[in-house]
Queue: 2 jobs
Job 1
Amino acid sequence: MKEVSNAGLRIKYILITHGHPDHTGAAEELKGIIKAPVWIHRLDSPGLGFPPDGTLFDGQEIEVGTYRIKVIHTPGHSPGGVCFYAPGAVFTGDTLFSGSIGRTDFPGGDHEKLIKGVIEKIFPLGDDLRVYPGHGPASTIGQERQRNPFFR
């Protein structure tokens, strides 16, 4: 929080890509510290452990400063998994990693839906777009289209 405060920034939302504990575990505590609303897709909201302040849905646009963040529903890792598209970047949570994809063997997971969502909704965003996954190094859509073994 010190870095955010020192930069003169204010966190407007806590946007959560999916409802698994490694992505939701600190949401309530973080909400209490920064006083920002927590938003998650309705299908994954039970993973929060408390009622969300807002619900994310496919195609939704969220204004943050001078940017508009677009919500892209990409089920497969979880039923309510979403990615966030912003100018120059897509934040993929556990949908797409550098060289891999999120697990689909958890309850509610669906391998075919995950693959279809990436091919139909993420890849068309453009090969030069940066991919920032929920774990691991960043990549680009072009690198993932060409090198990710799940899409060959």
Note: The mean pLDDT is 96.
Job 2
Amino acid sequence: MSEKISSVKGAAALRGPLNEPPADAAAEAGLRPPTFGDFTGQAKTVERLRVMVGAAKARGEALNHVLLSGPPGLGKTTLAFILGHEMGRKVRVTSGPVIEKAGDLAGLLTNLAEGDILFIDEIHRLAKTVEEYLYSAMEDFRIDILIDQGPNARSVRLTIPRFTLVGATTRTGLLTAPLRSRFTLQSRLDYYSREDLVKIVRRSGRLLKMDLAEEAAQVIATRARGTPRIVNNLLHFVRDYAQQRSAGRVTAAAAEAALELLEIDKAGLDEMDKRILRVMAHNHGGGPVGVNTIAVAVGEEEHTLEEVHEPFLIQEGYLARTAQGRVLTAKGWQAAGVPPPANVAGGQGELL
């Protein structure tokens, strides 16, 4: 509740042990790169943002609005804070579901200073009524609020400082065209290469003051599913494991043992990934099968499967998405530990 109040009213966070950020959130924030120079990967997006920041600073103006899209954990929030650092402005953070009505949005916007950055995570989940108020705020830097109802209703126009809206979304398709068109820059973040992930492991290891072997960095990067957030999560557990089981020294063997304890194999597949593949192989003959059916069978939310597990499985060639449903590829059958049927050719079963 305190988080919602601080987001809506734009006030400083309350002090005290009950309102301190969770330890995991604080640890993740401590590993975030503060500048473009410290940021690894996403070269095209970073270069576009550098151009915008340089031009805005040269003109002495607020940065234009930016929309960042892509799967979770790739650095959308980090880039928003880097923009604030590079522009020398504060970043106010909220999320789409928190802004329930126009008054909430008005409270956020009127508490911004000139040039500040408002970061809205999961912006595709904004209420439609709130979204319509955002149009005039982004274009004309004003907002018209309706007060009272019936015969006493009246409109009040609020002028707001020139601000920068940075929106983040995992599902660009759910954004309405009017909102999407109001962002000057729309940039998608992609999964990271293994080389970039190794660099992130090294940097995070130094910040955590770990005795990290180069081979261990390779092991962790290989199993991180192309995602920096997963890299840092694995790194924290590997550090704990090494502290308890290998005198603090993170060797390749220690890293592999720690990740095996987490049930993450050498291909980066976790237990839920394997369960999905096994259910499709044993219960549905490799598909096609709908994602809602898979979700019920494995006991997981459909949204989680679509946002967390399915992108990796499709990208790595374990699954294929068809009009009839999801189907196992030859690689998926192998990972499930089941011999593929004779009709699986070229990595995908015959659908008809």
Note: Residues 1-27, 346-352 have pLDDT under 50 and may be disordered.
